[in-house]
Amino acid sequence: MSRPDRLEVALYHRLGDFTIDIAFRTDSGATALFGPSGSGKTTVLHAIAGLLRPERGRIVFDGRVMLDTASSVFVQPYRREVGYVFQDARLFPHLTVRQNLLFGRFFAHRQRRRNGGMTLENVVGLLGIDHILSRRPVNLSGGERQRVAIGRALLAEPCMLLMDEPLAALDAARKAEILPVLERLRDVSRVPILYVSHDVSEVSRIANNVIMMENGRAGERWQS
């Protein structure tokens, strides 16, 4: 029987000459998929989010089967209740920060809404973005855009947060601005995080557990 918040992943998928063949388990907290570019980290995230249907595989989170190719189970992405933060923020340019955040709220599970869950005020305070709510994305720095993207994902009340190289497009100053936010998110939020990066300094600060990836496979694993 799966433990609460446990993620169990087993995937096999070919992409041209490249093959993903990986299996791992991880519990709540922040877990990093760490490895060089091209090692298959983003492909694994896409499979967990339902953006990729692998040739073979099984994905279970908190006892809920999201994918089982042997049984022809494939839960559609919008039903997986997974938040995804991309490398580029992907905000709606015509909406204000407040409107972008509330768009995420639209996808929140109704039961969790009734039980309170994450509120706009909670997220704004956690991410320190109360002073930019009326701005549009074009008037934000790269770090501010990523904060808003994280906030939008959180307001969707996800069961799990997937973060795909969220700092890769930022310069050193913006990274230094965002890293404490991610640490606070890990410590304050109860949402498990699966964090993709090839930057050892990011991973050492954010992750409780690290799964090394290379050539589509999981290698050494360590815990902080």
How would you sum up this structure, described in words?
By secondary structure, the chain is an alpha/beta fold. The protein has a single domain (7-223), classed as Rossmann fold, CATH 3.40.50. The chain is 31% helix and 28% strand. The protein contains seven helices and eleven strands. The protein has helices at 41-49, 97-105, 110-114, 120-127, 142-155, 172-188, 200-206; strands spanning 7-15, 18-26, 30-34, 56-61, 64-68, 73-74, 82-85, 160-164, 193-197, 209-214, 217-223. The strands form two sheets. A six-stranded mixed sheet has the order 7-8-9-3-10-11, sandwiched between helices. α4 runs antiparallel to α5. The longest helix is centred in the last third of the chain and has 17 residues, at 172-188. The protein is globular, with a radius of gyration of 17 Å. It starts with 6 loop residues before the first strand and ends with a strand.
Short structural description:
The chain is of the alpha/beta class. 31% of the residues lie in helices and 28% in strands.
Structural key phrases:
Rossmann fold, 11 strands, 224 residues, alpha/beta, six-stranded mixed β-sheet, 28% strand, 31% helix, five-stranded antiparallel β-sheet
Helix and strand topology:
Elements: E1 7-15, E2 18-26, E3 30-34, H1 41-49, E4 56-61, E5 64-68, E6 73-74, E7 82-85, H2 97-105, H3 110-114, H4 120-127, H5 142-155, E8 160-164, H6 172-188, E9 193-197, H7 200-206, E10 209-214, E11 217-223
Parallel strand pairs: 3-9, 3-10, 7-8, 8-9
Antiparallel strand pairs: 1-2, 1-4, 4-5, 5-6, 10-11
Helix pairs in contact: 2-5, 4-5, 5-6
